[in-house]
Design a protein that fits this description.
The complex is a heterodimer of chains A (293) and B (466). With 293 residues, chain A is mainly alpha-helical. Chain A has 13 helices and no strands. The chains are: A mainly alpha (293), B mainly alpha (466).
Chain lengths: 293, 466
Amino acid sequence: MLEKNPVIFIILAFVVIMAGTTVTMIAPFKWINGPGDRIAEVKPYTPLQQEGRDIYMREGCNNCHSQTVRTLAADVERYGYGGTYSKSGEFVYDRPQLWGSRRTGPDLAHIGLKYPDVKGAWHRKHMENPQSVVPASNMPAYAFLKAPLDTTYSERKMKLLSFPYTQADLDELKGKTEMDAIIAYMRKLGTDIPVKKAEAASQASVATSNPFTDLQAIKAEAESLYKQNCASCHGDKREGTLGPALRGSAKPDADLFKIISQGIEDNGMPSFSGSLDEQKVWKLVTLIKKDAQ
Amino acid sequence: MNAPTRYVDDSVKGFITWSIIWGTISVLVGILISLQLAWPQLNVAPYLTYGRLRPIHTNAGIFGWGVGSFIAMFFYITQRLTRTPLWSPVLARVTLWIFNFAIASAAVTLAMGFNRTKEYAELEWPIALIVAVVWLMFSTNVFMTILKRKEEQMYISLWYIMATLVAVTILYVVNNLGVPLNLFKSYSAFSGTNDANVQWWYGHNAVAMVLTTPPLAIFYYFLPKVTGNPIYSHRMGIIAFWSLIFMYLWTGAHHLLWTPVPDWIQTVAMAFSIMLIAPSWGAVMNGYLTMNGRWEQMKTNYLVKFLICGITFYGLQTLQGPMQAVRSFSAFIHYTDWVPGHVHMGTMGWVSMVLFAAIYYVTTKMSDTEIYSIKLANTHFWLILVGQLVYSITMWIAGVQQGSMLLATNPDGTLHYSFMETMVAIFPYYKMRAVSGFIYLAGLVVFIYNIYKTFRKGEDLLTAKA
């Protein structure tokens, strides 16, 4: 009969298709984004951040950049920036999510923790001309984002998404460029969540001395730490790009340790106490001090 | 089937022509973006940047070439299997023009940056709405033809066709739900993890219901037609059909392994992905066993080559896919170029090979003549095969290499390679991939020339008769 009655056939096919759909797609709405997923610190986007997010979507950044740190050690180490892996509660205001499926560029879920600089100097330089900061990069240049930001719909967007906003938030949009907006979005990503501080890399340990006196023994590890954490601002060969050159610094070990772990807020140097433990910071200090070539 | 029924094939011809045009555009854009990945200075801001072009490549490929030629073939097959002329030829003609309008405006608006960013559902709501209307017009036409059929039995192909009509409608509508801000921008109805789960329920079943069931319908119809062998087992076809459309819908979350999507959804997706090997290979074996005792046709019949090579790629895809859906392997290759390598074996290999065979066959039937050149068809076959293999193999190697570099750590737990070191390592493969694109394009040019000449031959014969 099935092979002779298309109406019954269609109904049956519909039922079969809806089985998996109901269990794995419809039912999870009951759990996902419920109270158990909420993270109190995660805030909705401001009008400027949301405008930046919309520019991110317009340019299709999601085609090369993912936004989920998986629960894998290497993912957390590479993209967590002290914020560990991604949790459901971090994304509740994302419509749509921008998780992506390919990492032709790095994951950006917690990028705000990597570049906390208020002025966004690194992002600005990088987006205008990516190869000026990362010479081998294959990212296109986005210098055209220096155009003024269109704010016609900014307020309506807030209303539509039911995000709270103040007049001050709207005033903040005045005179901003598209670049300012996308940088505001970049700086927001990952910064709401509580960050786990690496043990012992606190001010208290600054007084202790550098346990690594022999550079050769730790050179490979120190160089890889440098490439991960420092090269984007201080240059691949420590020649200095956005930040100063780092070859054979004359500063005492303890001073360098303090700068790396606590950062210098005024000039954009981020704090690495969240992502690097004490041992790793000392390895970097040794590299900077002893490797002058 | 030389019944007196008069089939209506002008829309079949129209959809074939336009799907080939959109397919060629997809390949051209694909080559451009593959070059951009190796040489970023080829990005022309703002309209021709990688981020805006990649959705044009995928949409032109899936919706322009894929869906366009499936509509053509469904119109063709349904009429023959039901021994009934198309329900409404006028509706079919209107469908073609709205279809072309939708694909053209998709290309233009994506270049302008109107992008919902959900993969394979990037089109903003007015165009998505037009796409839905096109689909419903086409579905109605096919379903009404089946309803009014003169042949009582419904062959396997019609089953796959009907499942496609229902499933794609549900998938497309749900994943496109949203609230419009204005004519050019909307926000998804779902947020965060929910949105991801809906997106990949859609994304993976677009693979099932757009890139699997339609080519299977086409394969099941044309293999017996081309070889003269009846299909090996109708019963195996039935079992494979129902288990395939049942299992596929559970597997979307294998795109989301290790993410915040609840673990049990990931595990269910993993299990069903492995189980899918059975129905997938049911179809593959049905194809192979249909050739039993007639394998010499691989040498003597150029169409058999396309069909059997196509179903072989399908078999390989449906082994590789479940492997990728396992957590441990996914941890290794997800987010790398392995995945484009996998996808393109499906699109350039499986789907396109079956479509090439169908288009050759239908063109010669409609023109009432033989193919212009079998030699050129063979050249086409080899160029396509080599282009596709070079593409997938280079991307698999690139994916494995980058995947292992990304996971490598030092004794103290720090990462061994910076992100850029892993990228620099795969740039040579990007250049080889671009070369593979040119080889594939050459095959496509030979194909188009051969089809055009065959069509002209038919026209000339017609004028000679008159």
